[in-house]
Design a protein that fits this description.
The complex is a heterodimer of chains A (425) and B (428). Chain A folds into 2 domains: 218 residues, Metalloenzyme, LuxS/M16 peptidase-like (Cytochrome Bc1 Complex, Chain A, domain 1), CATH 3.30.830; 175 residues, Metalloenzyme, LuxS/M16 peptidase-like (Cytochrome Bc1 Complex, Chain A, domain 1, 2-Layer Sandwich). Chain A has 15 helices and 13 strands. In chain A, a hairpin with a 2-residue loop joins strand 6 and strand 7. Chain A is globular. Chain B contains 15 helices and 16 strands. A 7-stranded mixed β-sheet of chain B has the order 1-2-3-11-4-10-9, with helices on both faces. A 5-stranded mixed β-sheet of chain B has the order 12-16-13-15-14, sandwiched between helices. In chain B, strands 5-6 form a two-stranded antiparallel ribbon. In chain B, a hairpin with a 5-residue loop joins strand 2 and strand 3. In chain B, helix 1 crosses helix 7, helix 9 packs across helix 12 and helix 12 packs antiparallel against helix 14. The longest helix of chain B is centred in the N-terminal third of the chain and has 19 residues. The model of chain B has no long low-confidence stretch (mean pLDDT 96). The chains are: A alpha+beta (425), B alpha+beta (428). The interface between A and B is large, with 77 and 73 residues. Chain B: This is Insulinase family protein.
């Protein structure tokens, strides 16, 4: 077993995380900016990384910047936005070949640091405004990106469930923001917002690969200097409880119905019972040995996919399935019965062991990709906890049946969403 | 057991052909937790017309049967193989492509047990009338799911435009009507024809000891009685070089249109190094023309003709091959025109330059190194390459040796008016 070790070092306003391993052929840098998820900033914030990755002062066009990346043995540069609990997180990643596997010995990691620093600190800006043409193009693409959720019914149903379930909470916001808010963004307002984000956001940099930690610390303090700040926290509100289960049925021109069900787990990452929640979700619907797969798919032949997954920071569990338009009653009742079985402790020692084994396996496999390592470790930043990788493994091992039942009992059905074809339900 | 070293990459691979014909490859990956194994048969959706084992007459089987068989392999008399894998801490899966069916697991513990499970379940079919009927509901939902997926419809719509006779134009999963004809007897017939070890490849990658694993596989295979089997005889109708249809439109429940251009290769008979050169040349050409560092990409993006869904790729298998370029767009007709113009311009001298070739090569070499971080990539792609008599680890040396003339020649061969087709998904 190879559990990676993370070294964390604050460098003024930036927290540097280094993970040294020789198992990859590339080195990976992941830059994270975290701020509370808010209606007022969600759209401008999701435009930002796409403008940054387009070009820079030194490489003022996309073609020039991308040609430079090609020269660096096809270094990959990509940006990503995520919601974690009530936070909105920007990621900028560079993955670059390790020159020890190349015939050419150019020091690539240093160049990757310089490039990341350029993208963040020396963007293509004139007179306190981002480049006009770039912003215009990226606004257009952002609108298309927001719109695209409508054309992928699996994503759409998932998005609609969250929207209905979390109506009164920031979490209902789409990760890419709101189409109607895009037009109001200008080169100036975007730049002003960026300066504010750079000054206020919580900043983390992960570097993983066959690296020299001291060397990386040197690059980070030289190339990414940021003033110390007190990161803003998302408002902590008590979970919103609905008086009755919220039921939503929506009709569209689709062949397959999409059934998405949302639950409040009332447990989040870092809670003592969090590992039990993971095992509960695993027995219930996380895997192809789970109750949902066995009963909805294998026994009743109602679905090809049926699964449950957790949102660890928000305390949600979501079931999703594609079923025939006419199978709604049968599917919801089978899913309901499986949850009841969990609450009644109607599952075997074998199911517990099986699920723990698979979860541990999944976690160890995640450690085999650089991105996976970063995502697991970043949970600690979002939750303000320090759970290391070894604790994940032992935490999972120690979960008892009583704890699983207790986690199951805390779970409350919140919203049932069904997207179905015309003339049926 | 033969040892093959790749010095620049600092990797080693071990190979042995079993007495029954099974090819076994092991690539040890130090520092990794995960072992990933694939057990693949050279049998996919295009193999629908063949001489069944021991028979004298060719038969045609229902569309979607290879994929159906893949689903049914997981069910045994004493239950579901998924259960056994997860008891052993592994996650298992399978997929069917045009030319392959692969069964796989990944696990970080009990590797030898899981490997045994993988080999044994794939070599022990169990189909009954009842279980076959039950599966039709599940696969029916899989088919309906893809029916609602506009990207999937676009992809198949374009292949259908390009191919007149070749079974690549048939949906891998078949249709609800076609799978209704599948019986357990047919599954056995396909199984016995295509799942002989001599038609299969086992690949194991992870923190394993090659000697131990090879011995285990050898011992496992020796216990099983396999008769020698002749190579599978497949039949394909003649396929014209030109596309079947130059254009089609699908009206679907979408808000943003989609447009994909296909270019069908006029000759998909290459294999081995020749095929590798052709695939790499054409992918390099597409990257030079449409990659993010190209002027064309900037132009198309500035004009609002493409967004971040834009993609391009050339791939080939025995008997078919095509390039695809496109994505979501508000102006599908204009995008189709622009892509076509750019491609035709590539036939002119001086469009593909030495500089752009060198840059694209560097990019592809870096991309390959990133790819070999992934055990999944290594196992799946090595198998695909091997079934086409190519070697995955020849990619970097072949790229390095690729000349401008070779890229230009491959480009000139591909691009021809009668090989183009456009498929568009438009809002209803």
């Amino acid at each position: 077993m190879n559990v990676l070790e993370e070294t964390v070092k604050p460098i003024k306003g930036l927290k540097l995380h280094t993970i040294k391993t020789d198992k990859f052929k590339t080195n990976t840098l992941v830059w994270k900016m975290k701020a509370p998820l808010q209606k007022e900033t969600v759209t401008i914030r999701s435009l930002l990384p796409h403008v940054l990755e387009s070009n820079s002062e030194a490489f003022p066009t996309t073609a020039k910047l991308r040609a430079y990346l090609d020269e660096l043995y096809g270094a990959s540069l990509y940006v990503d936005l995520a919601k974690k609990g009530e936070y909105h997180i920007i990621s900028i990643s560079i993955d670059i070949a390790n020159e020890k596997f190349l015939s050419d010995q150019t020091p690539l990691l240093k160049k990757a640091f310089q490039l990341l620093s350029d993208i963040i600190l020396k963007p293509n800006v004139d007179n306190s405004a981002f480049d006009r043409a770039t912003v215009a193009k990226e606004k257009r693409t952002l609108k298309q990106r927001i719109q695209s959720v409508n054309d992928d019914k699996m994503r759409y149903a998932n998005y609609r469930l969250i929207q209905e379930m979390c109506k009164e909470e920031p979490y209902a916001l789409h990760v890419h923001g709101e189409s109607q808010a895009v037009d109001d963004i200008t080169e100036e307002t975007l730049y002003r917002y960026y300066q504010q984000a750079l000054a206020e956001d919580e900043l983390d940099l992960y570097v993983i690969g066959d690296i020299d930690i001291a060397e990386v610390e040197g690059y980070a303090s030289e190339l990414l200097p940021f003033a110390v700040r007190e990161p803003k926290k998302a408002e902590q509100r008590a979970a919103i409880r609905k008086a009755a289960v919220h039921q939503v049925k929506e009709e569209q021109d689709v062949k397959q119905g999409k059934l998405n069900i949302g639950y409040r787990t009332n447990l989040v990452y870092g809670d003592a019972e969090y590992f039990a929640l993971q095992v509960f979700n695993g027995i219930f619907g996380g895997f192809s040995h789970s109750k949902l797969f066995l009963n909805v798919r294998e026994k009743a032949s109602l679905a090809y996919y049926v699964a449950s997954r957790l949102e660890s920071h928000k305390g949600l569990m979501m079931v999703m399935s594609g079923i025939d338009n006419n199978s709604y009653d049968q599917a919801t009742s089978i899913i309901g019965e499986q949850l009841e079985a969990m609450k009644n402790g109607d599952f075997s020692e074998k199911e517990i062991e099986q699920t723990k084994a698979v979860i541990k396996n999944q976690l160890l496999e995640t450690m085999d990709t650089a991105r996976g390592v970063v995502e697991v470790l970043y949970h600690n930043i979002v939750a303000e906890k320090q759970v290391d990788l070894q604790e994940w493994l032992t935490g999972m091992d120690n979960v008892t049946k009583e704890e699983i039942v207790s986690a199951a009992k805390k779970t409350e059905l919140d919203t049932v969403y069904f997207l179905h074809g015309k003339g049926e339900e | 057991m033969e040892k093959i070293s790749f010095e620049q990459l600092q990797e080693e691979m071990y190979y042995e052909k079993m007495n029954n014909g099974l090819d076994v490859y092991i690539l040890p990956k130090k520092g990794f937790n995960k072992t990933f194994a694939t057990f693949t048969t050279k049998y996919g959706s295009v193999d629908n017309h063949f001489l069944p084992l021991g028979k004298e007459e060719y038969i045609k089987v229902p569309d979607g049967i290879a994929h159906f068989l893949e689903h049914k392999m997981f069910e045994k008399e004493d239950g579901d193989v998924f259960q056994q894998f997860s008891r052993q801490g592994a996650s298992a899966n399978a997929f069917t492509s045009f030319t392959r069916t692969a069964y796989l697991f990944s696990s970080t513990s009990d590797v030898e047990k899981n490997l045994e499970t993988l080999i044994d379940f794939v070599q022990d079919p169990y189909f009954t009338k009842e279980t076959v009927e039950k599966e039709k509901g599940i696969i029916g939902q899989e088919i309906t799911m893809y029916d609602d997926n506009p990207d999937w419809r676009l992809y198949y719509g374009l292949i259908e435009n390009m191919y007149k006779n070749h079974p690549v134009k048939i949906d891998i999963a078949g249709t609800i009507a076609s799978i209704s004809h599948i019986t357990h007897d047919m599954l056995y017939e396909c199984y016995h024809t295509f799942y002989h070890p001599s038609n299969m490849l086992l690949f194991i990658v992870g923190p394993v000891d090659p000697e131990t694993i090879m011995t285990q596989v050898r011992d496992n295979q020796v216990k099983k009685a396999y008769n020698e089997q002749p190579e599978v005889q497949r039949k394909f109708d003649d396929e014209p070089a030109a596309v079947s249809k130059a254009r089609s439109e699908l009206k679907l429940n979408v808000q943003t249109p989609k447009c994909m251009i296909g270019i069908k290769t006029g000759n998909a008979t290459q294999s081995g190094q020749e095929m590798l050169k052709k695939e790499l040349s054409l992918n390099i050409m597409l990257d030079i023309l449409f990659g993010k560092s190209s002027e064309n990409y900037s132009y198309l993006y500035s004009e609002g003709l493409i967004d971040d869904t834009f993609s391009f790729d050339y791939s080939q298998e025995q008997g078919f091959g095509f390039a695809m370029v496109g994505g979501d767009t508000s102006h599908p007709d204009r995008l189709a025109e622009e892509i076509k113009t750019i491609l035709f311009k590539a036939k002119e001298q001086g469009t593909i330059t030495k500089d752009s070739l060198e840059r694209a090569k560097k990019k592809k070499i870096g991309a390959f190194m990133r790819a070999v971080n992934s055990p999944e990539y290594i196992a799946n792609q090595f198998t695909r390459y091997s079934f086409n008599d190519m070697n995955l680890f020849d990619i970097v040396p072949t790229l390095e040796g690729l000349s401008l003339e070779e890229v230009q020649r491959a480009t000139d061969d591909l691009i021809s008016e009668d090989r183009f087709s456009v498929c568009q998904v438009l809002p209803k």
